[in-house]
Amino acid sequence: MRHFDFSPLYRSTVGFDRLFSMLDSANADAPSYPPYNIERTGENAYRITMAVAGFAEKDLSVEAREHVLTVKGEKEAEDEGRDVLYRGIASRAFERRFQIAEYVRVEGALLENGLLHIDLVRELPETMKPRKIEIGSASARQIEAQAH
Predict the structure, then answer these.
(1) Are residues 2 and 55 in the same domain?
(2) Do 106 and 120 reside in the same domain of the chain?
(3) How far apart are CA 105 and CA 68, in angstroms?
(4) Domain count, the chain
(5) pLDDT along the chain (148 residues), means of 10
(6) CB-based burial, 14-52: b 16+ in 10 Å, e otherwise
(7) Whether this model's pTM surpasses 0.85
(8) What is the model's pLDDT at position 128?
(9) The SHSP domain covers which part of the protein (predicted)?
(10) Does 44 share its domain with 19?
């Protein structure tokens, strides 16, 4: 993974401390298990896909709270009475957190073929959506004023 140095930006910006600390923390050595993808599935739709092979629905939890999406996986020990010679399939507990933007809500989650799909939708309120402003001319206002 690449490491980016944001320190030159610190001296030329004011009020972006939280943004830079988030970038630095995202840039730090983050856990790599389980692997995941984030994709755009539509203009305002996104999907997070996590590889959670070996985990059942009862072993996983997905929680959205205050702009943080948390995915946890805890599996009960199944090795009792088994003599495992080689362990290549990871089944350790994990917790992965994603920062989600304002006006983004979790639409649902689906476990399919060892992949956990979490669908997200961005819903901007009407007041936040761009709107077209008509441009009038000064001569049209004068004609309307004289007509009254």
Answers:
(1) no
(2) yes
(3) 10
(4) 2
(5) 58 56 59 86 91 91 91 80 78 87 90 94 81 79 60
(6) eeeeeeeeeeeeeeeeeeeebebeeeeeeeeebbbbbeb
(7) no
(8) 72
(9) 27-138
(10) no
**Rounded Cα gap, residues 62 and 1, in angstroms:** 27
Same domain for 126 and 62, yes or no, is: yes
Phi, psi of 97 (to 5 degrees): -115, 140
State the Cα–Cα distance between residues 89 and 114, nearest whole angstrom. Answer: 12
Identity (one letter) of the amino acid at 14?
V
Structure tokens at 32: 């790599």
Please check whether residues 122 and 142 belong to one and the same domain.
yes
What pLDDT is stored for residue 130 in this prediction? 80
Would you state the pLDDT for residue 125? 80
Q: What is the pLDDT of residue 11?
A: 54
Q: Is there a contact between 67 and 103 (Cβ–Cβ < 8 Å)?
A: no
- Are 11 and 48 in the same domain? no
